[in-house]
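Hi L.,

As promised, GD13807:
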Amino acid sequence: MRALFLLPVFMLLGTFCSLEAANILCLVSTAKHNNPSWSKPLFDALLANGHNLLVISTAPNPEPKKQVDGLVYFHLPNEYDVMKRHFLHEEPREYKNMVTLNQLLVWYEVLLGSCRALLNSDTMSSKMPELRAELCMEYDLIITDVTQGIECFMDLVSGWRSKPVLGLSAGKLTPDLMSLLRAENTINAARIPHYISPVPKNMGFWNRLHNHIMYYAEPLIHLVVTRPVLSQLMKAEKGFPNLQLVLLNTHPTLDYVQNLPPGVIEVGGLHIKNQASPLPAYIQEFTDKFVDGIVYINMPYIEYMNGQGLKAMYTMIHDNPSVAFIWNVEQLEQLPAKKPNLLTLHVNQSLQQDILAMRDVKGFLNHGDSFSLQEAIHYGVPVVVLPLKLEEFNNAQRVMERNLGVMLKAKEFNQTSLSDALTRILDEERFTSALYQAQLKFRTRPQSALELAVWHVEQLIAEPRLFKHFAQTEALAQNFCVANSLDVLTVPLIVLLAAVVSLANLVYVLHTGGSKGQRSFEKTVPKKPKKSKKSSKSDKVPMNVTLKLETTELIEDLNDEILEGEEQLLKGEEKPLEVKKED
């Protein structure tokens, strides 16, 4: 009997022991601009908790330099470059503006183009036998990056439907993500700006019309473009795996507040380090020489700004000689000229966070990707944002609305625009005040983003069916009219329409029928006939055939009565005359 009391304890210990030995498959096939390395802190934390990981990733240079216990790593480069393919002209060297609807097509073309570039690469072909051997193992959990709403590697995994699948998304909440989660679509197009649209939060009629077009165009693109093309690359049903949970890289300080399905957990800032590392001595020595602080620049493709990009940078640096400028030139094709207050570096993501963590950093110039903006909020640094592609326009709009920085538009870019924008974030107090409030909200959480992510991963391993009730398959089975209650709304609409028609008919009858009745009544009253020609002519113009016949009969009857009356009067007058003659 005593052993029965210890049974729950043994079961709990068995659960923890199984967690320590859990086998996890991690698939990250996104292109470089989606920052595939943002999930690395989660993988490192799972390794530290004793789990075994097989990681297949496209992250740039993430492969560990030495063997790590419990980790098997495959690096597959994704050479797809969305900027060079859609937004940059080489000859002449310039940036190409694109309307938002075209960018929506680009968003889905990125999904297909990135998958095609990866699956058809020489690296993939050479490592395929080894990959298939590793993927034949049994896994307790599959973690997949679904930033673009697809996982190209899932076609290689056999039996994945019997395993719990957790999705990672570096972007915002989209209808595609909720479809993978089989959750009800909680996005209201009348209130939530589209994730790649620069529509303001307070939308007018035309903004809402534009927003609805963006959202309702997505299913059509899926039907006509995405699925037919994807079926030529892989099995489409495997490219869109059913998810139990989604870890979403958003936070209300930067992203709009909305109703999240229960299977979506916000982990914005997952990639941010708990503690910054000390900077190299040469960087510290350089920044100590300047009294007005530090400005960090990370703006690749600045050379494509209509020939004004580098000139605008030089003008800004020249106009602020007491400010130290640190410029990340990793992706620049042309190195900038040397300046006394300029330090050029090749900066990776970790070093960027260390630079922003410095107390004297007064500004951060970037293109508005979510990761850079989250880092700026975390360290309380105002930003100058020059959006160029896709979700960057949405992020820049939120930055401007919340006074987190200044937004520049590519079509309005000139030699002095950067200098003017920097002056604003350095001098205007409202940016510092707004950043302080945002930083406080971003950092104040019951759990850090990393702790929250690890907890949900281990809960899903321990109890795979724990989140099964989050899916709402009956909601997905409904057609468009039923899901949006259009069939129910037709009933009051028909009743209202019938009431309006009845009221309009009543008004018409009262207006036209009443006047006709009055005229017919007036004509039925006998009047003394007039001998004028006008009256006789007017009597000969009836309004309609029926009225004409009735009027003719009435006149004839009246004439007969008048004639009879006159005859009687004449007879009455003649009799007395005859009597007098006899007398």
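Residues 1-18, 533-539, 574-583 have pLDDT under 50 and may be disordered.

Thanks again for sending the construct details.

K.
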